[in-house]
Design brief:
By secondary structure, the chain is α/β, with parallel strands linked by helices. Helix content is 49%, strand content 15%. The protein has helices spanning 30-45, 71-76, 78-94, 110-117, 144-152, 154-162, 169-175, 187-199, 203-217, 221-236, 239-251, and strands at residues 6-11, 14-19, 51-56, 99-103, 106-108, 120-124, 128-130, 166-168, 180-182. Strands 1-2-3-4-6-9 form a 6-stranded mixed beta sheet, with helices on both faces. It has a 3-stranded mixed beta sheet with strand order 5-7-8. Helix 1 links the parallel strand 2 and strand 3 (51-56). The longest helix has 17 residues, at 78-94. It starts with 5 loop residues before the first strand and ends in a 10-residue tail after the last helix. One of its GO terms (molecular function) is catalytic activity. Pfam families: ECH_1.
Length: 261
Amino acid sequence: MTEDAVLYSVDDGIARVTLNRPARRNAIDLATMKLLSDRIEQAASDTSVGCIVLGGTGDSFCAGGDLGAGMDEIVGAADTMLRTAARAVSGLVRAPQPVIAAIDGPAVGVGASLALASDLVVATVRSHFVLPFAGLGLIPDGGVTATLAASVGRMRAMRILLRRERVTADDALAAGLISAVCEQAELEATVAEWSVDLAAGHRTAITRTKALLNEYALTGLDSALQREAKEQAVRLASSDFREAVEAFTGRSVGAAGTENS
């Protein structure tokens, strides 16, 4: 993995952080998660940046955690991966700048977690969101136990998580999960319009608005991340998870690492 796994640029006060593993549908392994966390923190600490845009290359925003490394490596790196994912999620929420997630294609597992940690989400009509943790013998992570309920309410959150629903972009908009839906060809222009407006806005007012809203709506995020990490490390080492992964990869040879946690 090289630094090209996460592209980073700053132009006219807008930082772009882009997952760039299209051959893996932007599935995230530990090295990529570390780099993603570093880039989010780099953007957040840059006083020239007025807006952060999180995106992905290819036909997926993010297909989840990458299972391609194999079970032994996944289990061995579980604690580090969960801590690093928590750093990425916290970085998005705590960044003083507003974060726009530009979603084109699936946002699955930790990919959906990253989208939910953003402040504004613009998705194309072909996008969808899936949190399939329970089907893999896992619990939700990446702060989802806090961010999902804060967005859609407890009952809808339970339904999405326990039934592993595939939520289309239109349904996600209706449920309050995302901010806007557009055609695929309009995504770049829509995100550019929003990000330019935010980057040119009154920085202090925007920063404090984000902070105050998140302090109220996501008051339990830190504890959620801690509880999720503690329990998920156990679940990742369980026979339930191993059997679920073996069944999944057995059905989808060559697709390991996609549409998972």
